Fold these 3 entries.
Entry 1:
Amino acid sequence: MITNEQAFDRARAVLPGGVNSPVRAFGSVGGAPRSFVSARGPYVTDVEGREYVDLVGSWGPAILGHAHPGVIGAVQDAASRGLGFGASTPGETELAELVRDRVGTRYLEKLRLVSTGTEATMTAIRLARGATGRDLLVKFSGHYHGHSDGLLAEAGSGVATLAIPGSAGVPDAVAAQTTVIGYNDLDAVRALFEARGSEIAAVIVEAAAANMGVVPPAPGFNRALTEIAHEHGALVILDEVLTGFRVSASGWLGLDGDYEPDLVTYGKVIGGGLPLAALGGRAAVMDLLAPLGPVYQAGTLSGNPVAVAAGLATLRLADDAVYAHLDATAAALSSAVSLALSAEGVAHSIQHAGNLFSIAFRETPPTDYAGVKAQDAFRYPPFFHAMLDAGVSLPPSVFEAWFVSAAHDETAVSRILDALPAAARAAATV
Ligand code: PMP
């Protein structure tokens, strides 16, 4: 048997930082990341054979819990018929129909399947530029939309965790095509559109922000944003990569959808744990994509049949009972976290966006990235490590949401509850 430290040392020699995605490196919490070998239901198991209750859920996809037999069966069945053909399959049409029907043709008439959330948002932006003939993109600070050049300025997720303003290697000319403004600030939105409205191709927004910790949109924010953008002939790209099919059967639009974004992006749950993502919108916009239109996009693995099988099985199994369980579990866990922190006198607030939630170590809930940064973030590493020592795997950054699943039963939840008092004490005494 090897230890997690040995696994990490070996990885570091051949993988930059020992990881293939930065947040996994425990950069802000310290210590050697756990190296996992298997997962089942609400649990993950590391190279040392230690089992943890998992609240990362593969960063979102594992809505049913890990290795759900219905999903694994569908994947095995698809794999036995070939891993991919680089050609059309009936399954990809079925998945697109299922998504369209669940979300509704008011928002989605056509979809294109891609492999990652990054590709989905990148393509949506190109499409918006192609549709409007304009270049400028508006994004919100603290929002994360993947790692393409134009989207890293003041981004959330790993960019926030590493406390960097953006990324090296992005040409100034590309960065200049993105304007970043504060979240939940309609005055800033109005002012920007009044000053530069005719240059703006699109505004991209997380349906509910969850990559700087969870910061829900103020009531009516998404609707007002859409109205302002549309008044100026700009498109709205609603990024549901994280919220899609997680916060409800039809995503954030199912909870707060009294507006019509022009394009919607999906990832994570839609692929059931395999690399699959999508963008969709009205046919008039989507048909601008090649081969029908002038906006080019392609992918060797797009609509991969094994990934499509995982996505179809996951979406079909995610019924109303699953969402009711996620909501109840998230509510129970978040109030237990809050009680434990209060008992130790730790200033905190818990933010929710449906069943997504996270802690901010400050008295009042932050509403934007500046507010998120103004918290006692130093309390999170000891909290995180106390939980990990007690067998609970949390996201290794205070700027990430916690993910529950349908497999988090009473046993798993009580293991989390048992671990909370000592973790709250660790957060209090740091
Ligand atoms: N958009 C959002 C809202 C996300 O949360 C993420 C990933 N966390 C992405 C886009 C990028 O997706 P991927 O990591 O699959 O490229």
Entry 2:
Amino acid sequence: MSFDYKIADISLHEAGRHQIRLAEHEMPGLMSLREEFAEEQPLKGARIAGSLHMTVQTAVLIETLVALGAEVRWASCNIFSTQDEAAAAVVVGPQGTTDDLQGVPVFAWKNESLEEYWWTAAQIFAWPGVDEDPTVGANMILDDGGDATLLVHKGAEFEAAGGVPSAQEDDPEEYRIILETLRQSMTENPQRFTGIASTIKGVTEETTTGVNRLYQLARDGRLLFPAINVNDSVTKSKFDNKYGVRHSLPDGIMRATDVLLGGKTAVVCGYGDVGKGSADALRGQGARVIVTEIDPINALQAAMDGYQVAQLDDVVDQAHLFITTTGGKDLITAEQMQRMRDKAIVGNVGHFDNEIDMAGLAKIPGIKKVEIKPQVREWVFPSGGSIILLSEGRLLNLGNATGHPSFVMSSSFANQTIAQIELFAKSHKGFDGDGAYLSDVYTLPKILDEKVARLHLDALGVRLTELTKDQAEYLGIDVAGPYKPEHYRY
Ligand code: NAI
């Protein structure tokens, strides 16, 4: 079979396949969905445009979607997060020969430029023949952070307006690149994204930042198709964001710097799910952790968990390590970075790089950048002092390490798979029965959340207690669940 793809090096496929094989063993949720739906093929006819870190774990997700009947095109949602061997194995496919590619078109490699990144995002929608006939193109999006969804929405918006606006002086560099990508697209086909938007049945979104964008679109009445918020499945955000980061944050810091964390002072900005996992991990290494928060509830939680809660300005010259985890912007300013101790380590695990003012840092007169190794740079101030910045302010757990481990991603990706099945079957675009998903944002029903958790119990030797009928009646719930009301917070 031949198809278009662009990755770093196809000869890495064997190394990738070994890692995928081991990951499958650690991903019981995905593997049991493959078994459950092998015959039914609920994703037959689905053409999924996927934008999510092209890691080994994502390879298992992609091959699960294919095993359930889907056709897939894939890009990474971050310029640094691709594991090149995983990308190669996915392109080659499980049968493992480069003479006859049986896999999936992937457009992803570690260390993309921003121009390349947006080119890859466009490629996941470039299904053969789609410009002549949109109905042969993507009909589902699987997104992480919302960039694929953004491309379709902005593209369709500009096409309706008859052109792409000029960039404003203060527009960030990345936004200029998006505008250029869409300008190019419109010259090739002035109605490309309008056609794509009309055929998309829905999007399933992985992360907090992407979900926030979806709710904004829905609130403004601009969401063009239904969306399932996968992030807020309990078995996603309360596991991946927290326990996943608890593993992959220290992994990234250690691979990048080899600095001993015990005894050091670390600031964690934000005490949501990712912040909680980060603070726990750093404390586990013996660091003294200080938390910053804007939300009194989260600040109180941090205090009761035993952390000092402070304002960054008051501690910026004391800490050895600064980690942002908020999904917000301008958490650490260039001015604050100049006040840090010499060789302080600065990194981010929130979705986008604007948590740290990288643009402001680059504009400091006389500042110098020294590459220590890939994704580790020392920024030397004119005063002589320096800071160590990881992954240029982008997700350091994926840039400096390999992201979350398989077991926790099995839980997240089981939710993704179930959400794809739900939306593909019941989007109002094609389904007018009861329970059709309209162009709004939904979470999966609690019973499915409980199912995802259940799929992971055996592997950990968990023996669940079963409710008796009598106990269930007393609590007013069903023996088979759901066990909690919607408002329960875990
Ligand atoms: P969350 O909403 O639970 O937590 C964010 C916290 O940051 C909130 O408590 C909020 O009050 C606080 N915050 C916002 N602005 C702040 C400011 N200026 N100063 C101090 N605190 C502030 O969100 P969650 O799930 O923890 O996700 C955070 C980010 O991490 C998102 O961008 C999400 O997409 C990303 N993420 C990254 C992962 C990774 O592997 N690196 C995994 C999962 C999520």
Entry 3:
Amino acid sequence: EQPEGRAFAPVNIALCKYWGKREEELNLPQCSSLSISLGPLGTETVVRRADAGATEDRVELNGACVDASTPFARRLCAFLDLFRPDPGARFEVSTKNNVPTAAGLASSASGFAALTLALDRLFGWKLAGPPLSQLARLGSGSAARSVYDGFVLWHAGRDPGGADCLAERLPEVWPELRVGILTVCAEAKETGSTGGMNRTAATSVLFREWAERCRVDLQLLRDAIRAGDFTRFGATAEANAMSMHATMLDARPPLLYWRAETVAALHGVRELRDAGTEVYATIDAGPNVKLLFRERDEAGVRGRFPDMDVIAPFRQPRNDSCSPR
Ligand code: DP6
């Protein structure tokens, strides 16, 4: 039996979104982004060297063997290519997601982060958070943020090789923060993030303004987090998501990730706010909605959205690898 590396990484949800790359091969983003990790939701991965003679990587997802020709296995094996001690080396990877099925939470972020942390253990590199975030980024951009719990800032950087493109955990802790996950539609999204953001960058005229929006929103969010200003935090996160979806709609052909239920949820959020319950919404490249609110408003929000899953990001984190600075 070969030695193994095992690690968990949380899913994350961006409050200031990553939508657009300055370089595709290395997943270098056009703009910096900011997220909150949603431990204990995430991915646990075990990786080991396959016995000599193995001709293919063996990939298991939630206990079932995944065919090497699937997009999932191919993306994973392409990432493993970066880490083979010799060209013939093969790996066995077993990965488990505890994200509620089809919740539309990007499991590629937690997946590549967990695999990176597991490889770090297997090979005994003992890398710090920032270099781990750089490696995870090569699998999927948003994975750079999933190597940490809590609020995470992913710096776009300027270096063409990505030397300064890394994530750091922010020191602020908001124990009262809650994230509600509304699975409004379980269908698989039609256009993945990579293709969607590239199409937007190539064809949307609004996309030119998006970078400046993100620079301003990122500063507002950082200030709000530092000041403990939930209203500014939630309003900025919601507005940033709406701006991202505006660029998506402006792509040619347009990208429409929302379903009728998505719009209904957004109206529900507004109605709650008008009635004095402070709740904000954010949406990624899919139809599902994530709600941001505080512990004190949980009952009020649940009254309108009885089926939501609630995460307390600072109460129940589960990330055994990169502890806060
Ligand atoms: C809308 O990280 O999945 O969720 O780097 O091409 O793998 P690749 O894209 P990915 O994009 C995430 C897009 C988003 C916004 C965000 O998480 O910041």
